[in-house]
Structure formats: C-alpha cells, structure tokens
Design goal:
333 residues; alpha/beta; five-stranded parallel beta sheet; four-stranded antiparallel beta sheet; elongated
Length: 333
C-alpha cells in the first residue's frame, strides 16, 4: 500500500551529497549502521516525527524493525479530554514495547458535544495534537456505529484500540503533533479545520477516518546548522549564554574529540535524562545537537521537537564535518 504521507522518511535526508563528499557520506552510513548494534537500535531506527505512524497504514501486523513511531509529547498544554488510561510512551520505545499507565488521572471528563463536521481555520503556523481511527472504505456501517458510540460518550481512543486499521491503534490512535504539509490533503484539511476536542469525519484513499484534535501550539523549527556557521557563532562569548548545546555521543567518543560548551547526554543513557529534558533545558531557547556524523543528533533533534522545543538545530555532518570544514584542530576519529 502506498504511504499516506507525502514521502518516506529518509534517515540521511539531511546529509550533504556530492562527489567531493562521497567518503564522508559513507562514514555517516557506517556510523548509522554501527548505531544499529546498540541495545536501543531497533527503537532508534524508528525515531522520527510522531505522525509517521500513518506511513504504513496496513493491518494486521508490522515488522518490529521497521515499525513507524508514535509517541506523545509531554510538553504541551494539557488538552481537556477525558480522564482515562493513556499510553505513556518513551520516544525511544517502539509501539510494541510501550505499556499502559494512568494519564491525567485527575482531569475532568470531557462533556462537550461531539460533532462530525469541519470547524475553524487559520492554523497555518500551528502544530496540532491528533488522535484518530481508521476503518475500511467499504465499512460505512461500522463507521456510523462508531460515531453513535462516540456521541454516547465512548472515548475515541478506546474505539481506536479495538477497531482501527492504523498501527497507531496500539497508542490509542495517537498520531502526535502534525504540521502542514505532512499528510495527504484530505486528512490535512480535516485536521486543520477541526475544532478542539470535536470528533470529525473524513475520507481518504485509505478509508474513513474519525479524528480528534486534542491541543494546538505554535509550530516548532528544526534546521541543519552548517559547521562553519556554528564555528562563527561560537566565537561570540554571548552565544554560550543564549544557546543550549547538547552532545549525544558516548563518553569514549567525547574523550577523543569535543567542542566547548556542549553538555554530554549520551544516547545510550537516554533513560536517565530523557524525562528531565524540560527541567534541564529551556524549550524556548535555541538548542543545538551534535554527534559524530549528524545521524544520532538528528534523531534526538526530532524528539526534542516533540517535547516542545521551539528552535532545534542539528549540526550537519557532526563533529567530523566540524573538524574538516571549520576547525582542523579538532581531532578526527
């Protein structure tokens, strides 16, 4: 089945190309392959923007090594949906490994009336937190039954777990934060016109969707940072006060080569620092992420977006490219 989103995720989409850099590209690929041997390799392979759960809209099973991710941001205004069991998901967990836990246990149950029509617009620069369920195109009877059950007070996420054809059913239909241009036109139009907490129906080539927008926020930015530009910024002492610098390499790598001002958060130790990220760093500040060749840092940068960080920069080519292009005094390894 073709993908719902416009293009497949390419782990190397931020790597520069060209004959003169072919050796560097291969080093980057080798680095990525090496990362796959780490204990969390299978989870790292699936780390991308949360809406990629729709990339493989098919049922019933998905290979665990290629399963698209679906994780919920923990840094956004609490949406006013019902108190219920939700998934608490680590950004480095594959959907098959997440466990149910109580979420928003004290939140009041949503009392707003469910509607099945489009609503507001004007969200061009917004990101929307969306959950949905998918049924087959020829299963209109089931769709109508589900609409009636939702109107009667049943939560959409409960029905997604039981009936949805989308892999996101394992997360209660949670797709995460969606921006303009990340999904097919019909689904995007419905999402960006749906009132908060209202259930909206739409049809795509994949079937019928019931979707619900739970929250919205200003769109975040993820950009590549050229090593030369980073080197120039680092000549200004004020840069280290205004920016947040994160190095996700392992300690033995940092011992061989490092840049001043970067706080080391080894990816292997994500379990020790992941839940504290918004306490240690300010999501409103510019945040720069560095690794060896730019692969691991891109994965972490994408995750930081889901945690509400407004402007995240991935150092393109990593510290290796920084040594080659900006500062030869930095050792290569």
């Amino acid at each position: 089945m073709p993908f719902l989103f416009g293009s497949t995720h390419d782990e190397f989409c931020h790597l520069h190309t060209g004959v003169e850099r072919s050796a560097e590209i291969w080093r980057q690929r080798i680095d990525d392959i090496a990362m796959r041997s780490l204990p969390m390799a299978s989870a790292l392979r699936s780390l991308a923007s949360p809406i990629f759960v729709l990339h493989n809209l098919r049922a019933p099973s998905i290979d665990s090594a290629s399963r698209p991710p679906s994780f919920q941001s923990s840094f956004h205004p609490k949406p006013s949906f019902s108190s219920r069991q939700r998934l608490r998901i680590s950004p480095f967990s594959s959907p098959s490994s997440v466990k149910w836990s109580s979420f928003m246990a004290d939140a009041p149950r949503l009392q707003s009336r469910v509607c099945f029509s489009a609503g507001i617009s004007g969200r061009e620069n917004k990101e929307l937190l969306v959950q949905h369920l998918l049924v087959g195109e020829d299963n209109l009877k089931l769709l109508l039954e589900l609409q009636q059950r939702i109107s009667g007070g049943v939560d959409l996420s409960d029905l997604a777990v039981e009936y949805s054809l989308c892999p996101s059913k394992e997360n209660g239909g949670m797709l995460g934060w969606i921006r303009k241009g990340q999904t097919v036109p019909e689904f995007e139009e419905a999402v960006f016109n749906a009132p908060l907490n209202k259930v909206v129906r739409c049809k795509t080539k994949y079937g019928w969707h019931l979707l619900q927008v739970l929250s919205e926020r200003e769109e975040s930015i993820l950009q590549d940072m050229d090593p030369e530009d980073l080197h120039s910024k680092m000549q200004d002492p004020g840069f280290f006060e205004e920016a947040q610098l994160i190095d996700v390499r392992e300690p033995e790598e940092v011992a061989q080569a490092s840049l001043p001002g970067f706080k080391v958060l080894p990816l292997r130790q994500f379990g020790t620092w992941g839940s504290l990220i918004t306490e240690e760093f300010d999501p409103q500040k510019d945040t720069y992420v560095l690794c060896h060749h730019g692969v691991r840092s891109l994965q972490v940068a994408q995750w930081l977006q889901t945690q509400g960080f407004k402007k995240v920069f991935n150092v393109a080519g990593g510290i290796h490219a920084y040594s080659v292009k900006a500062d030869p005094s930095v050792p290569k390894y």
